[in-house]
Write a structure and sequence with these properties.
By secondary structure, the chain is an alpha+beta fold. The protein has 6 helices and 11 strands. It has a 7-stranded mixed beta sheet with strand order 1-2-3-6-7-8-9. The longest helix is centred in the C-terminal third of the chain and has 19 residues. 44% of the residues are buried.
Length: 275
């Protein structure tokens, strides 16, 4: 199987020399490795076995510093509220499982042995809460802007505090010896062998069951100033939608979180050339 990648960046704000998206062989020659790496942030990558099992993945990545994460400003709160109304109108009576983005994630969850009706993707969970309760709570600037984009595109968006991640982050199958701390839990547990996790170089899991739930330790805090944001999809128009979602996230970060530096990449295992 030939697996490559495409690079898309806003060249007005990002010098191509600052972003390295490369193809590299994984251990044992299995597939290839998609890597997003900059001089200011350790790499984010999909393990070759993930690319081999799930070749439909499109991953968007943003690295931002100088971020402010206080209370949600009024302008963002208004935009978030308006998006909730728009999302409810778009969805209407349509079952969430019939949305292309959600249906694709359900198939992926089944692909690594997880019941998607027991453990829902982050995007489905948000939309389910929105359609059942009529609104989503305001948490803070970073979470609210991420949730705004998530319900707009029905895609999972995660905001990680880079200061609480050790080295690079890899999306791979869990071995079962990694450590995970859930929100509100007093002790760390281990993920199940074979589930997809976001894990750093110290073996600390930042997200379980791919995009089911983020760890307590990696979540953005009031003092967070450097972040890594991911938005991912598997549906047929995922590359287009992820690219648009990244643009929206960048704009929201600049306007409401005063991000002083942004680096953006779209990783797709569908092309053999860098462009």
């Amino acid at each position: 199987m030939s697996i490559g990648l495409r690079r898309r960046v806003d060249r007005d704000r990002l010098d191509s020399r600052d972003l390295d998206l490369r193809q590299g062989r994984g251990s044992g020659g299995v597939g290839q490795r998609l890597v997003c790496q900059t001089p200011r942030v350790a790499h984010f990558q999909y393990d070759p076995q993930i690319l081999e099992r799930f070749p439909t993945i499109v991953g968007g990545v943003i690295h931002a510093t100088g971020v402010h994460n206080g209370s949600t400003p009024p302008e963002l709160a208004a935009a978030f509220h308006a998006e909730m109304l728009a999302a409810r109108e778009r969805i209407g009576p349509t079952p969430l499982s019939e949305l292309p983005t959600i249906g694709a994630w359900r198939r992926v969850f089944r692909g690594f042995g997880v019941d998607p009706t027991q453990y829902r993707s982050a995007a489905e969970s948000l939309l389910r809460r929105l359609t059942k309760q009529g609104e989503l709570p305001s948490i803070g600037t970073l979470v609210d802007l991420a949730n705004l984009v998530s319900i707009r595109y029905a895609l999972p968006v995660a905001v990680f505090d880079r200061g609480r991640i050790s080295g690079g982050m890899t999306v791979r199958f869990a071995r079962g010896d990694e450590h995970w701390s859930d929100l509100g839990a007093s002790e760390a547990v281990h993920p199940e062998t074979g589930e997809v996790v976001f894990v750093d170089e110290a073996g600390i899991v930042s997200a379980r069951r791919w995009c089911w739930r983020q760890s307590a330790g990696s979540a953005a805090q009031e003092d967070t100033t450097e972040i890594l944001i991911t938005v991912e999809g598997h549906h047929p128009t995922a590359e287009q939608d992820v690219t648009r979602a990244l643009a929206d996230l960048e704009g929201l970060l600049l306007t409401h979180a005063t991000a002083s530096m942004r680096r953006t990449a779209v990783l797709t295992p569908s092309r053999s050339l860098l462009d």
